[in-house]
Write a structure and sequence with these properties.
202 residues; alpha+beta; six-stranded antiparallel β-sheet; four-stranded antiparallel β-sheet
Length: 202
Amino acid sequence: MIAAASGLILSIGLPANAADTTVGLSASAESGSSQAAQLAVTAAPTATVTFERTAVTTKAAPKVETVRVQSTESESATGAAKSAKLADAAASVAASGLAAIAYTGIGHPYVWGGSTPNGWDCSGFTQWVYAQAGISIPRTNAWNAMTPTSTPAPGDLVMQNGGAHVGIYVGNGMMISALNPSQGTLLHAVSATGSAAYFTLR
């Protein structure tokens, strides 16, 4: 039973048979009137329900493009600096080879004016070491053909006492030189034989 706003009471009866689509309505006045109105409501056996579909659109993903940076003058300068460092590294390796050759001279005798392993003086020894590496330097005052350096590398020349003595620097403050007739060619500290200046072919 449903109370309507008009003061009528509506009753809806559903038939037992689900296939029957006729719905009966009966209405009677609250006053108890003997007159009854019968309303027949018919409905279609099927109902159509529709839903609004949201429109969805898609876009292709953007293509990623590789951006090539054009070289600048500063990059060219950096490349030149790298090349210079590589050249220095190669020169250092060559100088290290000179130091290794100098080690083979240890124990050979000192002979004034000599320039062979049978006997050499300090400048004859340094000339011989460089010659074994295919490098020609003057027998005396060889440092005049070289470049002064404050950061010596193994293989560089050590000129001492204003040019009175010369030897091969081998690193860690040490050098190899033909020192004198009584000591021959030996490894010794640079500081043990006076003031020093360094020269390089780099």
